[in-house]
Amino acid sequence: MLYSLESSILSKLNDYFANKKDVEDRLTIETYMGEFEDPSKIEDMLNKPLIFLDFVNESYQDIATKKVDFKIYVCSRCSTKEKNKRIENKYVAIKLIEKIDKVLIDELFSYGFEANLTNLSKTYERVSEQGYISLYTRDFSVLIKTTNEGEGIEII
Q1: What's the gap between Cα 132 and its chain centre?
Q2: Structure-model confidence comparison of residues 17 and 58, the more confident one
Q3: What is the reported pTM?
Q4: Where do the domains of the chain lie?
Q5: Dihedral, CA atoms, 154, 109, 71, 149, nearest 10 degrees?
């Protein structure tokens, strides 16, 4: 069930960003596998925003209902230390997060899931010789209910 849920979220987000008219808006969302654990490696990331989905926790709410918590990491970087460009980069990242939020709310609901967006925080920010980099984290959860057969997912 968890695999289905995570795959569905990745699929919906990737479908949304893959079909963008402008090449700059075409992004790929991947499963998080520790890419930001070493802050010194964050600066080696590509110039394009990077987006990762991370499973955090699963807990039973009752005998048939589970709450699954996720994080989405959005890493944005620009190759200049100029203040105006850093401010512009910040708002590019925030607009991207707002697009992700819309997909999580609208698209997942139409796919049979309901996302509950909770916290958005800036996890990392740094100005260096290579430029400016920031990392934002969106927390959200999804409630899922097993069917009587123990398979599948229903909207709650």
Answers
A1: 20
A2: 58
A3: 0.84
A4: 2-145
A5: 10
Rounded Cα–Cα distance for residues 120 and 112 (Å)? 24
If we measure between CA atoms, which residue out of 9, 57, 46 comes closest to residue 29?
9
CB 135 within 8 A of CB 71: no
Q: What is the pLDDT of residues 114-156, one digit of tens each?
A: 789 999 999 988 887 778 888 999 999 998 876 665 545 444 4
Residue 32 CA: distances (Å) to CA of 3, 4, 29, 35, 99: 14, 16, 9, 7, 19
Pick the CATH number of 2-145 from 1.20.58.340, 3.10.180.10, 3.30.70.1700, 3.30.1250.10: 3.30.70.1700
